[in-house]
Amino acid sequence: MTPPPNEALLFEVPPPPTSVERLLHLADQYTQHNDALDLVLRTTATSGPNTHADSALRTAASTQSAIKAIQGERLYESVELAETVMRLQQLAFLATASADLRAGTARQLTALAPEAAVSCAVTLATEMRRRRCASAPVADHRLTAVQCEALTQIARGHVVAGSSLEREFTRSREPKVLMSTLRSLETRGLVERSADSAHAAYVGGPPQDRVRLTETGIASLASVLELPPARPSAAPGTTPRPLTAAAQATARSR
After folding, report:
1. Using alpha carbons only, how large is the chain's radius of gyration in Å?
2. Beta strands in the chain (DSSP E)
3. b/e burial code for range 46-64 (CB count within 10 A of at least 16 → b)
């Protein structure tokens, strides 16, 4: 007789992504969608309106799901929260509209979508922390400021990697994400490279590798979005002592 399965294993499923994590996933989905359009636009084959339609409609559906997740938080409405939902609704509209257009025009409609999704994630994380929500992410304090900035740049779809003359390099916007930083994030399992998925650095060149956040990287970035800056603490024994009356009189006479 087959022994019954372990009930603990039956119900051992990962928790669903938080609303902030959903928005970072959404940014990555838009980046992949835009990369696919870029590769289509740089091929010699003629692309029709249906080349990217399925991908565009999937991103639109994911955007609507992210909106529902935010509304499910039941946060008291604020101007910031209302604008976040409105911005996401605009993204869903643009993605849906792009499904009926040719690749060149469609690419323009979703060009800024990854950055917009990350900006919405930042606003939502800020609102949840300000209201001390139970679902607000717990900060990953192991990340340095440089690593946090690199993860944000990657989430926005600004970082690619490649190689030339057997030497690896990264391309990103300011502030630059160095190869040493990328490797440290890869070692921790926070990012990965999607080979040959981004357009070439120059006409006729080979495709580049898109740098993307892993599931762990998304969770880590979500935990540190818009955290207040850490206050510098004085080293032990360096607290200035109050001046004596004689010292104060001397200082006034100078």
Report:
1. 24
2. 160-164, 167-171, 191-198, 208-213
3. eeeeebbbebbeebbebbb
Q: Is the pTM of this model over 0.90?
A: no
Burial of 20 (0-12, 13-18, 19+ CB in 10 A): buried
DSSP-assigned letter for residue 135: T
List, in sequence order, every residue forming a beta bridge with 163; answer none if it has no partner: 168
Half-sphere exposure of 115 (CA within 13 A, CB side): 7
Please, what are the averages of pLDDT over each run of 10 residues along the chain (254 residues)? 54 80 98 95 64 93 97 88 96 97 94 97 89 63 91 97 89 94 97 95 89 96 72 39 47 47
Residues in the chain: 254
Gap between the Cα atoms of 121 and 224, Å rounded: 11
